[in-house]
Design goal:
Blueprint (H helix, E strand, L loop, with lengths): L8 E3 L8 E5 L6 E4 L2 H16 L20 H11 L13
Antiparallel strand pairs: 1-2, 2-3
Length: 96
């Protein structure tokens, strides 16, 4: 027996730096970005898998979870919106 679940992926228009933000509407925290809609789709599905996967493996070992190397302003705004905090203003800081 197999089961399936349908998710809705929402895409924002590209921001001023060319990043397209994608998010899975049914799963808070499942959002990512890409330079193309296809890249954003692949990345948000990876984010979905990361959100739905425990951070600790059986036996108590922490998993090595990949992280974004660059976060575009659109993704930053989307994350801040989900967290209910204002987005940062001013020049970008290292790591953002």
């Amino acid at each position: 027996m197999t089961a399936s679940v349908d998710f809705t992926i929402s895409y924002e228009d590209a921001d001023e730096d060319g990043w397209i933000v994608a998010q899975v509407l049914e799963v808070p925290g499942a959002l990512s970005q890409g330079r193309t809609r296809q890249e954003a789709r692949v990345n948000v599905l990876d984010a979905l898998a990361t959100v739905l996967t425990p951070d600790v493996e059986p036996g108590g070992n922490e998993k090595n979870v990949p992280r974004h190397k660059e976060i575009g302003p659109g993704l930053m705004r989307a994350v801040c919106k989900q967290l209910g905090i204002p987005p940062p203003t001013g020049p970008r800081q290292a790591g953002f």
